């Protein structure tokens, strides 16, 4: 499994696009990318774009929580966007959709 | 042994004048790979004797050429015995380690009572770590004052840290399930316990778990980010129970909702499981089907049901599943009048 990250700065907002799969081997890359984004003082918000994240396991979810904490420590905002159905379903089933930012807890397509 | 005779026979028939005796060394080498040291020594002795004897038919016995070849056979034979001893010692160590792991697991996951508070119980756990027999899945049952409380959980991550946390959660549940009158409070206790656990910076520690309270016909469920329990009615209908979406996993705080009280009748069965079962995939990547589960849960006893589930998952995956699987099955028994 593999994962690539692509970081785009736009003023106070950093958008990190994930492409690939988040598991025990690759999740560290995401945390590294988030920490790297936080080194700039002007950053107030970190957004993870999961549009091309095809898979996530429990390690990946643990990492997302850790990323959220890391951003929160500095008072910044942390959001997920563009969740693919599989990732959305995994987060929903683990009760983490609400915690991880900016998304309604509604069952939507998660029940399938 | 047969091999030694064969080499000798070929040597004599072909009249190769003991050139082939080098091949005799294959017999002790093979024995070293699969046999006990004692048997390897026997084969080695036979091969050495055969090597000497091979010099007889053509009068080569004692010639420098023959002596050198015999020396090779004897040297390899001695090596073979040594290798066989080292190998069996290592195997014995591995066997002991596996046994220790099994005992450790048994200490964490105690054997289920077959029956408690009017409910028949069966549990099954298998670790994916080949030969280790220990993992981060957990289950426990606590009966108190006619009420039965169950937990099935899954520690994120694996290895020793996961095993330790699984043991801590199980122990805390035993205590809390007796003391607390409200199941939600039990979940909060475990939440605190997991939340205090130190975790590596790059990944948060959490435990998904489902807590169930069975009291006569009532089923209460607190779901902390875990796959929903499955109720099989005596009629054969299957249903997932508990709040959807579940609350956050243990260790991450947040609200803990008790969920509505479900009812179950005598003969109904409730399966608590970890995601290793529902996420078991076959060669084509398909998940383990619910329909197959329904058939498995129709077996005469709860124990046979779990054997059937286990067999079906194995057949579906085409071998051992890749993830730990913990299963806990409860069946409501007919009320027994007080004696």
Automatic annotation (TrEMBL), chain A:
<comment type="similarity">
    <text>Belongs to the anti-sigma-factor antagonist family.</text>
</comment>
<dbReference type="InterPro" id="IPR003658">
    <property type="entry name" value="Anti-sigma_ant"/>
</dbReference>
<dbReference type="Pfam" id="PF13466">
    <property type="entry name" value="STAS_2"/>
</dbReference>
<protein>
    <recommendedName>
        <fullName>Anti-sigma factor antagonist</fullName>
    </recommendedName>
</protein>
<feature type="domain" description="STAS">
    <location>
        <begin position="3"/>
        <end position="112"/>
    </location>
</feature>
<dbReference type="GO" id="GO:0043856">
    <property type="term" value="F:anti-sigma factor antagonist activity"/>
</dbReference>
<dbReference type="InterPro" id="IPR036513">
    <property type="entry name" value="STAS_dom_sf"/>
</dbReference>
<dbReference type="InterPro" id="IPR002645">
    <property type="entry name" value="STAS_dom"/>
</dbReference>
<dbReference type="InterPro" id="IPR058548">
    <property type="entry name" value="MlaB-like_STAS"/>
</dbReference>
TrEMBL record, chain B:
<feature type="transmembrane region" description="Helical">
    <location>
        <begin position="67"/>
        <end position="86"/>
    </location>
</feature>
<feature type="transmembrane region" description="Helical">
    <location>
        <begin position="12"/>
        <end position="34"/>
    </location>
</feature>
<keyword id="KW-0812">Transmembrane</keyword>
<keyword id="KW-0472">Membrane</keyword>
<feature type="domain" description="PPM-type phosphatase">
    <location>
        <begin position="116"/>
        <end position="332"/>
    </location>
</feature>
<feature type="transmembrane region" description="Helical">
    <location>
        <begin position="41"/>
        <end position="61"/>
    </location>
</feature>
<dbReference type="Pfam" id="PF07228">
    <property type="entry name" value="SpoIIE"/>
</dbReference>
<protein>
    <submittedName>
        <fullName>Stage II sporulation protein E (SpoIIE)</fullName>
    </submittedName>
</protein>
<dbReference type="GO" id="GO:0016791">
    <property type="term" value="F:phosphatase activity"/>
</dbReference>
<keyword id="KW-1133">Transmembrane helix</keyword>
<dbReference type="InterPro" id="IPR036457">
    <property type="entry name" value="PPM-type-like_dom_sf"/>
</dbReference>
<dbReference type="InterPro" id="IPR052016">
    <property type="entry name" value="Bact_Sigma-Reg"/>
</dbReference>
<keyword id="KW-0378">Hydrolase</keyword>
<dbReference type="InterPro" id="IPR001932">
    <property type="entry name" value="PPM-type_phosphatase-like_dom"/>
</dbReference>
């Amino acid at each position: 499994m593999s994962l690539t990250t692509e970081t785009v700065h736009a003023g106070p907002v950093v958008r990190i696009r994930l492409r690939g799969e988040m598991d025990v081997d690759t999740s560290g890359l995401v945390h590294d990318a988030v920490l790297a984004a936080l080194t700039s003082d002007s950053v107030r918000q970190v957004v993870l774009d999961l549009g091309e994240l095809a898979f996530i396991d429990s390690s990946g979810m643990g990492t997302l929580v850790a990323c959220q904490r890391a951003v929160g420590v500095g008072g910044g905002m942390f959001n997920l966007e563009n969740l693919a159905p599989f990732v959305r379903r995994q987060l929903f089933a683990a009760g983490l959709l609400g915690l991880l930012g900016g998304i309604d807890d509604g069952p939507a397509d998660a029940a399938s | 042994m047969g091999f030694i005779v064969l080499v000798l026979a070929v040597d004599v028939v072909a009249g190769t004048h003991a050139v082939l005796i080098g091949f005799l060394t294959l017999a002790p080498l093979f024995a070293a790979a699969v046999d006990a040291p004692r048997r390897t020594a026997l084969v080695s002795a036979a091969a050495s004797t055969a090597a000497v004897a091979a010099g007889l038919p053509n009068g080569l016995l004692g010639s420098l050429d023959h002596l050198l070849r015999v020396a090779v056979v004897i040297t390899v034979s001695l090596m073979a015995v040594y290798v066989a001893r080292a190998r069996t010692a290592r195997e014995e160590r591995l066997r002991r380690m596996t046994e220790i792991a099994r005992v450790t697991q048994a200490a964490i996951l105690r054997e289920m009572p077959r029956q408690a508070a009017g409910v028949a119980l069966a549990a099954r756990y298998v670790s994916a770590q080949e030969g280790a027999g220990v993992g981060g899945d957990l289950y426990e049952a606590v009966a108190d004052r006619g009420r039965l409380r169950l937990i099935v959980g899954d520690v994120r991550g694996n290895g020793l840290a996961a095993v330790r946390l699984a043991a801590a959660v199980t122990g805390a549940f035993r205590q809390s399930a007796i003391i607390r009158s409200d199941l939600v409070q039990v979940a909060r206790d475990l939440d605190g316990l997991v939340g205090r656990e130190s975790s590596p910076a790059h990944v948060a520690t959490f435990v998904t778990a489902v807590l169930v309270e069975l009291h006569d016909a009532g089923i209460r469920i607190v779901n902390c980010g875990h796959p929903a329990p499955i109720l099989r009615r005596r009629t054969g209908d299957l249903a997932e129970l508990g709040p959807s979406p579940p609350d956050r996993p243990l260790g991450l705080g947040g609200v803990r909702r008790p969920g509505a009280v479900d009812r179950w009748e005598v003969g109904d069965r409730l399966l608590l499981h970890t995601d290793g079962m529902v996420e078991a995939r076959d060669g084509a990547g398909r998940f383990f089907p619910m329909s197959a589960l329904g058939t498995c849960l129709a077996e005469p006893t709860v124990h046979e049901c779990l054997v059937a589930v286990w067999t079906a998952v194995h057949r579906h995956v085409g071998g051992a599943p890749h993830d730990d699987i913990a299963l806990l099955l409860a069946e409501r028994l007919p009320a027994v009048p007080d004696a």
